[in-house]
Amino acid sequence: MEEAAKLVKELVDFAESRAAEYDALARDIWEHPEVSHEEERSSALYRQRLAGQGFRVQEFPEMPYSFCAEAGSHGPVIAYMGEYDALPGMSQACAVRREPVVQGAPGHACGHNLLGVGSLVAAEALVHVLGLAGLEARVRFYGCPAEESLGRIPLVKAGRFSDVDAAMTWHPADVNTPHRYRTSANLSLVISFEGRASHAGMAPHAGRSALDAVQLFNLSIEFLREHVPQGTLFHYVITNGGAKANIVPEHAALHLYVRAPTAQDLRQIMLRVRKSIRGAELMTETRASVSIKAGKCDFVPNSAIQDAIFEAMRATPLPTPTKKEIEFARALQKTIAPSDRQATLLPIGAPVELLRKPLHLDIGDFGEGRRIGGSLDTGDVSYVVPTGQMNAATWPLGVGAHTWQSCAASGGTWAMKAARYAGMSLALAGFLLLKEPERLARAAREHKAVPPYRSTMDM
Questions:
Q1: pLDDT tens digits along 309-328
Q2: Is pLDDT above 70 for 1?
Q3: Average pLDDT over residues 135-145
Q4: Closest of 404, 453, 415 to residue 106, by C-alpha
Q5: Res 165 pLDDT > 70
Q6: Which residue spans within 227-353 are E strands per DSSP?
Q7: What is the mean pLDDT of residues 340-359?
């Protein structure tokens, strides 16, 4: 117990002595948001920082602004994944009312300015305590751009994670909990139909409407909803409906998202979706083309790693909010209707009674055996190596991701404290996995039950 307490103190002292540096980086990225595939500045900041801390930095050709930074040359590989892309149109000041910094500009409404820094804390802190303990390992920080779009799938397919013994990450949220729940697999595709234009009043019979094909396909999806595995979701928008009402549309398209409980379910569902596309072609005498934009496997949590994370979360002291931080959280929480606040808790089985307070200042253990409708590119990593993650309460209770409230909170001082807590917890989890090799062995045995990896983008 005394040794464990000393280790935790070393982690806390290490992170807190550098708190100003970590907070400044998180704030800097929050103030300079870059959307997916455009994170040139954010990626450079991380690479410069890690190189300055003695990490060997390698940029990857598979995706712009992706990289790996490694310290150590022998032993198991412990990897931390960091993200840094923002969401389009979500610009927001650190305020308790809707107040874009720049109207229409991007903003960190998913808290990736925090996510990357928390993982950075984990990597640097783990290297520090391993040196003190005389343990050898290869500690990596993966810079993972474009999570809101393509994600780290190209890196997984290129084998960039293949030699990792344990991969870990975290996500900003409104509760502190290990991420034991699973996510959904998804596929994002654009379906374009090509027909033949004609005058809709004079010669409609001469035309072949691409818009008819889009509408018939969408109708087939509505009927298909009843005959797919429970938990399957379809979302679509028509992105091109034609040029003018009096012209039979020659071109039309829709953007479709398909979500399913597992990647295996998604493959079976897509067989039927492609038959629906073919049916729309036949009924309208049009031609379809399909463009896959992104796709993610479901997240398969590794219980051995999740247990280490939970143990580390309980051993790491939670930050203490100031009176000003509590008041800010309470005011931000009140901008969300009470009935809507439950949406962040119910899917993972967290008690709604938590909402009586503005901040979650405890450690929960929510989500075992549950699945959410959202998707994470961490899922693809979890198919190839043992993977775990956690949530840290960077936002007020009831505040969910992809909202102006989460963007506002992500720029605040409390969020920075919570990000450092997440980093210290993940560093301690990495140390536990290395200190007790049976934990890594158990993680490896458990991972053998995961189905072989196949990207959903190859369907």
A1: 999 999 999 999 999 999 99
A2: no
A3: 98
A4: 404
A5: yes
A6: 233-240, 251-260, 287-296
A7: 97
From CA 407, how far away is CA 189, in angstroms rounded? 28
Q: Are 310 and 178 contacting, i.e. CB atoms less than 8 angstroms apart?
A: yes
pLDDT at 5: 86
Tell me if 435 sits within 8 A of 133, measured CB to CB.
yes
Q: Which residue in 231, 115, 148, 119 sits closest to 182, CA to CA?
A: 231
What local confidence, expressed as pLDDT, does residue 4 receive?
79
319, 333 Cβ separation under 8 angstroms: no
Residue 363, amino acid: I
CA distance 374 to 343: 13
- Count the Cβ atoms, other than its own, within 10 Å of residue 399: 28
As a whole number of angstroms, the distance between CA 3 and CA 19 comes to 24
Reported as a single tens digit per residue, the pLDDT across 176-199 is: 999 999 999 999 999 999 999 999
CB-CB contact of 351 with 345 (8 Å): yes
Asked if 103 and 95 count as a contact pair (C-beta separation under 8 A), the reply is no
Residue 86 CA, distance from chain mean position = 11
Ramachandran region, residue 441 (left: φ > 0; alpha: ψ -120 to 50; beta: rest): alpha
Tens digits of residue pLDDT in 28-56: 999 999 999 999 999 999 999 999 999 99
- 141: nearest Cα among 50, 69, 74, 83: 69
Q: What is the phi/psi pair of residue 359, to 5°?
A: -130, 145
Is 222 exposed, middle or buried, given 0-12, 13-18 or 19+ CB atoms closer than 10 A? exposed
Q: Which of 388, 394, 392 is nearest to 430 (CA)?
A: 388
Q: What whole-number distance in Å separates Cα of residue 36 and Cα of residue 129?
A: 34
* Mean local confidence (pLDDT), 121-144: 97
Which tokens belong to 20? 């100003």
* Residue where the block lists tokens 């920075």: 416
Q: What's the pTM? A: 0.94
